[in-house]
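Subject: Interface between my chains keeps coming out wrong

I've been trying for a while to get a sensible model of this assembly. When I model each chain on its own everything looks fine, but I need the whole thing in one frame so I can look at the contacts. Pasting all components below, labels as-is. Any help appreciated, I'm running out of ideas.
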Amino acid sequence: MSNNEKRSPYQCDPFDYNSHEIDRSSYSYFNYGINSSIYNIPQTPSDPQTQNIHGFESDPSYLMNFTDCLHGSMDYNTLSKAFDISCSSSEVISPPLLDQEDNSNNKATAEGVGDRNPSTPNSLISSSSNEAGAAHHEHENDQDSDKISNKKDKHPKVVSEEAPGDHEDMLKKVSKAKKKEKRQREPRFAFLTKSEVDHLEDGYRWRKYGQKAVKNSPYPRSYYRCTTQKCIVKKRVERSFQDPSIVITTYEGQHNHQCPATLRGSINAVGMLTPSFLASAASGGFDNGSPRFPHELLLTQLLSTPVNNNQLQLQAHHHHDPASSMLYSNLMSTFHENQQQRQQLYVPHDYGLLQDLTPAFSHKQEP
DNA sequence: CGACTTTGACCTGCGC
DNA sequence: GCGCAGGTCAAAGTCG
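Reply #2:
Try treating it as a single job with all components included. I did that and got this:
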């Protein structure tokens, strides 16, 4: 608009690397990633609940080498731990996540929150971590009603105007419940990909719904939503400010539909690395106990069996599936880059922002 | 004309 | 309570 004083939210700060010593340290997770490791990232480091849950601070097994992972030198327990998933993950994690003050009665009354999205196919993702998130996303299952309910959410004042009096307490409860609901998000996975293109083709169709400047980074962050109806998956794309050739893609949520490109027979591997996919692969199984697609089988093997590259290539080739082949080649090229050029591929189990990961790493770096 | 992007405004959560 | 930063909305613009 005509507001020249306000900086546009999608414009980035001109970043002076020399004058941001403290802020640079806040991105130290890049340095950790240089060792080509998979990190299981606790939610926000400031969230003591999550830290307790994951035991991140005290358990070194949360740091693992991606190569180890690939070559199967870790067992499923370790791997699923890294992804914060296992058959019993929900049992382990649920109790601490339950809010002791809130009996979640308010949730239902506040927004008519119903059941967990029935279309979410994969329960291997920690159900507890999704519990509140499910409530949050409930109205996102229908994009139209989503907008309506969002409008309701965003204008609680209207409610209070219409119903003055003893609604104050109720509103407090409602907002309290909402806070708790929105605190949790769908599981996230972030990937670092070396690419000149910001928005990598991943087989799914995305609609950009926002772009924001990232603090201390000259590169903006873009927000995308899966355009498939009733699919709640989002992704964020931003460029590493330390290495502009690296694109950080963060997926949130699980596709409840097949990849359109799979149907067309063309796909980029990155798109297959959705949380549900990785979760399934990491835990050694998919819905109905077996991979649904060849590329799922491929990654299952990537993550579980001590095979060499040739075997993998054969495996991908054997399936005659472009998705598998491309997944393979993308993964392997990335992994080779990891080792040779110290580039990195992150597969963190991330409930928070990438920036949120930092203090946990920093903490480890300098106890 | 529908799908998608751009972009200013607004909401929310969190730290101080 | 305030300010900041992340995240989202939605109208306007663009494109094929």
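Reply #3:
Confirming on my end. Residues 1-169, 171-183, 266-276, 278-367 of chain A have pLDDT under 50 and may be disordered.
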